[in-house]
User: What shape does this take?
Amino acid sequence: MEHTDDRPHPIRPEVVDAIVAALTTTDPAGLPDDATRAEKDAAQDLFFTRTAAGRDQRDRQSRAWELLLTRSYDEPPTWDRLFDDLPTGTATELGELFDALPEGAQAEYARRYGAPASGRR
Assistant: This one.
């Protein structure tokens, strides 16, 4: 008669990481053979959390670019020029999106308005 151990087994972070890596790269070669149901569930939760967080950041970056690019330019504009052309009130929303701004835009924003006190950075 086979005896099963009903006690919960600890979740091994390295196994969860390996499963997430396999899901991210869509390469099953790195899947551990001995992963428990709890480890698979933890990896799935982590994968979906990271995917949602990545999507949120991409949405924030897209919105930042929409605010920065208010018109077309004949020549590639400088950060200084982009900020000169911002409509009134746009700086407040850009401050809320500070972490999603490209590095040059962050520097120009900080030069003009100071670094935002709060943010996702």
User: Anything to note?
Assistant: The chain has a mean pLDDT of 84. The CA atoms of residues 52 and 58 lie 10 Å apart. Residues 37-68 form the longest helix (32 residues).
